[in-house]
Design brief:
Elements (H helix, E strand, L loop, with lengths): L11 H11 L5 H5 L2 H12 L8 H5 L5 H16 L1 H25 L4 H29 L5 H14 L1 H19 L5 E5 L5 E6 L8 H10 L11 E4 L3 H15 L1 H14 L5 H25 L8 E3 L4 E6 L2 H9 L9 E5 L5 E5 L6 H17 L7 E5 L4 E5 L11 H15 L5 E5 L7 H17 L3 E5 L14 E9 L6 E8 L8 H7 L4 H8 L1
Parallel strand pairs: 4-8, 7-11, 7-12, 9-10, 10-11
Antiparallel strand pairs: 1-2, 2-3, 5-6, 5-8, 12-13
Helix pairs in contact: 3-13, 5-6, 6-7, 6-13, 7-8, 7-9, 7-12, 9-12, 11-12
């Protein structure tokens, strides 16, 4: 396979551009949006081996719309077509088997056995690849990324040199198998320790032990014109050696042919196929995750992604909350919300009651954007998303351990880093920023920060309890969202629903204090 082949990027140049963009870039969004937590759950649901992790792919979204669309096409075909899905699983298993075979070869000290293992692994891989290509070629829609990719692999296995290789390997391995004993019977004790072994009992001296073995093994023992006999208290390595010696004595030309075949076909590079297997594991794990959660009542959709930045999302919910509910077997109790972003409404300012779902909402906005630009299904009912460049977040955090500066200074440093790296049409999500400083100072800083973000034609939002931030910004592309509450008087019931409305001027913190047993009288008692 001389040409570059990938199911994640349309070209090698696209891959290199993505790699260069993520190298050394801002990664605060990974922690703020809990993306590693989401990845670990998807990886668990995938049930694949450690060598096929896809963390880097999952944590770093693509900025090219063409790349996202390519992945969506592959994802949808694998999700919708059971035959193609099974063929993808078979391909991954085939590549994994040859990797394990190569590791086994590396641990083998016997040179002849090493050669046999290498040739067998090579033949099994080529045969498996042919089966996979056949299945996908019959099912894949012409011109789709899967069809194009499989066609390149099909060209590889249909090459005259590869066809000749497979034929010669098949003939040799068949001949080798015909000259190996078909029946090896081990006599084990209760601890599964082998005390004796009989190879081809037909030729072994007639004793009570071998008579019993012959009777039990008769249905599956073949006829041979040579014997190895009974070996007492021996290890299997020695047995393998004796069998090999017998075969060499019987057919010495096989040894000579083995060496020649190993020189010709025993050393090969499967890096290209391993990369494709890892890419397929990304798709398969995502699909397994979605299907597992759909059975529990959660819903997903494949978003429509465009180069334009208009965004419209219906019934979005937070993936972190959903995973926690699922893991704790609490069912699908997520509250979903709608949101829209456009040129005239590019940044929302969300205010509302404490513990009203503000952080959960803004996190869901970021996660949906990230998952969409990875090429995955997203947690909502319907979505049309504009592709953004980089995703920047600034969520309120506790002071970092070992930091030599205070929380406010840490936030200023992170803001400085974001502004340095901010490009047109990025996404910026701010959550309870500058809460550690004076209210008046925080409001001034936030207004300046929001205007700078809007000036770069970015998309995003701010969660804050500083309701004054939105005053005077409405005409600059900002709009106000609030958390819904129900009930009379000061005590309100949180609905966790988000809607448009004037900035919320109350935090309703008193009812939270009461629920926690903290009253004015209690505070006075403590102070005394």
């Amino acid at each position: 396979m001389e040409k570059y082949f990938s199911l994640l990027w349309e070209s090698e140049d696209s891959y290199r551009e993505w790699k260069a963009r993520i190298y050394g870039g801002e990664e605060g969004y990974i922690a703020d949006l809990n993306l590693k937590f989401v990845y670990e759950e998807i990886y668990r649901a995938g049930k694949f081996w450690d060598q096929y992790g896809f963390e880097e792919i999952f944590l770093h979204p693509c900025a090219k719309c063409s790349t996202v669309i390519l992945r969506q096409k592959v994802m949808k075909q694998l999700y919708q077509n059971a035959v193609i899905y099974e063929a993808a699983e078979e391909f991954v298993a085939c590549v994994s088997a040859i990797q394990r075979g190569l590791e086994r070869i590396g641990d083998t000290k016997d040179e002849k056995k090493k050669m046999i293992f290498a040739l067998q692994a090579r033949y099994d891989f080529l045969a498996g690849l042919e089966r996979v290509c056949g299945k996908v070629s019959e099912q894949a829609e012409t011109g789709t990324p899967l069809d194009v990719g499989i066609e390149k692999m099909a060209d590889f296995i249909s090459d005259s040199r590869v066809v000749a290789e497979r034929k010669r390997l098949s003939e040799f391995l068949t001949l080798l198998g015909q000259n190996m004993p078909q029946s090896i019977i081990l006599n084990k004790d209760k601890g599964q320790n082998c005390h004796s072994v009989v190879v081809d009992p037909e030729g072994v001296q007639d004793c009570e032990y071998t008579k019993r073995l012959k009777k039990w093994a008769q249905p599956f023992i073949g006829a041979f014109d040579f014997t190895i006999g009974i070996y007492q208290n021996m290890d299997i390595t020695y047995l393998d050696k004796r069998i090999q010696e017998q075969v060499c004595m019987r057919r010495p030309e096989l040894v000579e042919e083995l060496g020649g075949l190993y020189e010709a076909y025993g050393k090969y590079d499967i890096c290209q196929f391993v990369r494709v297997a890892r890419e397929l594991v990304f798709y398969l794990a995502c699909i397994r995750f979605v299907r597992e959660y759909e059975k529990a009542g959660f819903f997903f959709c494949m978003p429509v992604c465009t180069p334009l930045q208009d965004t419209s999302v219906r019934e979005a919910y937070d993936m972190t909350l959903a995973i926690n509910l699922y893991q704790n077997k609490k069912g699908c109790q997520v509250v979903s919300n709608d949101y829209q972003l456009s040129d005239n409404r590019c940044i929302f300012i969300l205010t509302g009651a404490n513990q009203g779902g503000k952080t959960t909402f803004i996190r869901s906005v970021g996660v949906i954007q990230c998952l969409a630009q990875v090429g995955m299904f997203v947690p909502c009912r319907k979505a049309s998303l504009g592709i953004v460049g980089n995703i920047h977040t600034l969520f309120s955090r506790e002071d970092e351990r070992g930091a030599s500066v205070g929380r406010f200074e840490q936030e200023l440093q992170r803001v400085h880093s974001i502004l340095q790296n901010l490009q047109e049409r990025d996404m910026v999500l701010l959550n309870e920023t500058f809460t550690s400083t004076q209210r008046s100072t925080a409001v001034i800083l936030l207004k300046r920060l929001l205007r700078e973000i809007a000036h770069k034609q970015c998309r995003g939002g701010l969660v804050t309890h500083f309701y004054e931030v939105g005053d005077g910004l409405e005409s600059e592309g900002f709009f106000s969202l609030i958390t819904e509450v129900e009930g009379e008087g000061e005590y309100k019931e949180r609905t966790y629903k988000i809607r448009e409305g004037e900035s919320f001027r109350y935090s309703y913190a008193k009812d939270i204090a009461v629920k926690c047993g903290v009253t004015y009288e209690r505070l006075m008692e403590e102070m005394e």
